[in-house]
Design brief:
This protein is of the alpha/beta class and about 300 residues long. Helices cover about 25% and strands about 25% of the residues. It folds into 3 domains: about 60 residues, Nucleic acid-binding proteins (OB fold (Dihydrolipoamide Acetyltransferase, E2P), Beta Barrel); about 160 residues, P-loop containing nucleotide triphosphate hydrolases (Rossmann fold), CATH 3.40.50; about 60 residues, Ribonucleotide Reductase Protein R1, domain 1, CATH 1.10.40.50. It has a 6-stranded mixed beta sheet with strand order 10-9-8-11-13-12, with helices on both faces. Strands 1-2-3-5-4 form a 5-stranded mixed barrel. The radius of gyration is 21 Å and the shape is flat. About 35% of the residues are buried. The structure holds guanosine-5'-diphosphate, magnesium ion and zinc ion. The site of zinc ion (ZN) has 7 residues, from α8.
Length: about 300
């Protein structure tokens, strides 16, 4: 039987199958191959054999279509890849137009991570009800210009919620963004029976608890289905390590001019004959994004 891993914890995997949710362990043969935590992660498509009404065994993990991974230094100077979600179709980057303030540098960071993982990014500009429509547009116009989809939403007025629902239908989506921007409220608006706790209710009770929360995929009951990943690990996104010479490619509007610099190891910082710098001067690449690139590059280069 085919299934999808919704949750993984301490060697147990909760797998959604046509016969319902099964609590599974890995077959011995699979376990020997690598560490259990690497073999199956949320989002993985697996082959399971049912052993009782509520239990099964994972026989095989199918090849991953995509992966959202964190790279960490491993042994002997090698990179170790820590996959957080398999088979995600897109990452929703949720920001508020205000309360909390919008920080474009943070958005640039997220966009680098999604590009590096070769995942589609969708920007959600939430709480549009709190600002002038023109102000909201002005905050995110740059990102629309460089080709990212931006969805303007409000949980208060319902603006953009139907569109968000369409975006989620039939896909595996990772939802991320800092606390308070409205992620839980948006998902509750899309599907009221989720009943996710929102800040007023949760912050006092669950303070500091998010670090121990188990990552999981939440099934959506809308036509077409779909899943959203609630992954606490995404919070540490800023710490992800990306090779410094691959950073330029992660700024998607730089891509058309890459390879045209005078030096093929150009860092696009101070070198003469830099095509990226020239594109910035001509207004083809926005200066804000170029500044973000320089900051992140310096950060990666220093350590
Ligand atoms: N005015 C307004 N407030 C919102 C909106 N979305 C969420 N909020 C409020 O913002 C706060 C944080 O929302 P929550 O969903 O818990 O954010 P999360 O931490 O990202 O999951 C709550 O007080 C929500 O009621 C919105 O579109 N407009
Ligand atoms: Mg929340
Ligand atoms: Zn250059």
């Amino acid at each position: 039987m085919r299934g999808t891993v919704l949750r993984a914890q301490s060697g147990f995997f909760w797998v959604q199958t046509e016969n319902g949710l099964l609590e599974c362990r890995l077959r011995g043969r699979l376990k020997k191959e690598r560490q259990a935590t690497d073999i199956a992660v949320i989002g993985d498509a697996v082959e399971v054999v049912q052993v009782s009404p509520e239990q099964g065994a994972i026989e095989a993990v199918l090849p991953r279509q995509t992966r959202l991974a964190r790279r960490a230094a491993g042994t002997k100077g090698l990179w170790k890849e820590d996959v957080l979600v398999a088979n995600a179709d897109q990452v929703l980057l949720v920001f508020a137009c205000t309360a909390p303030d919008f920080h474009p540098r943070m958005l640039d960071r997220y966009l680098v991570i999604t590009a590096f993982n070769e995942l589609d990014a969708v920007i959600i500009a939430n709480k549009v009800d709190l600002v002038d429509p023109e102000r909201a547009r002005a905050l995110f116009a740059l990102y629309e210009r460089i080709g990212y989809p931006v969805l303007y939403t409000s949980v208060k007025t319902g603006q953009g919620i139907a569109e968000l629902r369409d975006r989620l239908a039939g896909r595996i989506s990772v939802v991320t963004g800092k606390s308070g921007v409205g992620k839980s409220s948006l998902l509750n608006a899309v599907q009221p029976d989720l009943g996710l706790a929102t800040s007023e209710v949760s912050s006092a009770i669950h303070k500091g608890r998010h670090t121990t929360t188990v990552a999981e995929l939440i099934p959506l009951s809308m036509p077409g289905g779909g899943y959203v990943a609630d992954t606490p690990g995404i919070r540490e996104i800023g710490l992800w390590r990306i090779p410094e010479d691959e950073l330029d490619w992660c700024f998607q509007e730089f891509q058309p001019v890459l390879g045209q610099c005078e030096f093929n190891n150009c860092t696009h910082d101070h070198e003469p004959g830099c095509a990226v710098h020239a594109a910035v001067k001509q207004g083809i690449i926005p200066c804000e994004r170029y500044e973000s690139y320089l900051k992140l590059h310096a950060e990666l280069a220093s350590g």
